[in-house]
Write a structure and sequence with these properties.
Elements (H helix, E strand, L loop, with lengths): L1 E6 L6 E4 L6 H7 L2 E9 L5 E9 L5 H4 L3 E2 L9 E4 L6 E6 L1 H5 L1
Parallel strand pairs: 2-5
Antiparallel strand pairs: 1-2, 1-3, 3-4, 4-7, 6-7
């Protein structure tokens, strides 16, 4: 699933995800910033939900780290747990609150 991100403050650093049924191609073409679901398996074999931040316009590492993103499920702040893959495929995020459940 892809989640377009809506700016919640005047600086544009607090971002709230919106639920949509956008395809990957549509989200990449139409959204300045969006999250996509990533399912990973931890060292104990348990599946965990992670979110990759994607940008339409290139970002530096410092620019990508300026965002505070809310969780699509519980609306707590996400924590960056993985590095950027490119200037467009940015950090990997996890929700500490959802991981405890």
């Amino acid at each position: 699933m892809n989640y377009p991100l809506m700016k919640m403050n005047k600086e544009g650093t607090l971002l709230r995800p919106q639920h949509t049924y956008y395809s990957d191609e549509y989200a990449h073409a139409m959204c300045d910033l969006h999250l996509s679901d990533v399912v990973i398996e931890d060292d104990k074999g348990k599946l965990k939900m992670r979110y990759r931040l994607h940008a339409k316009h290139p970002h530096t590492i410092e620019g990508a780290m300026a965002y505070n993103i809310l969780c699509p499920k519980c609306h707590h702040h996400l924590k960056q747990v993985g590095r950027s893959l490119s200037y467009h495929d940015l950090g990997l995020y996890a929700c500490p609150f959802c991981d405890k459940i």
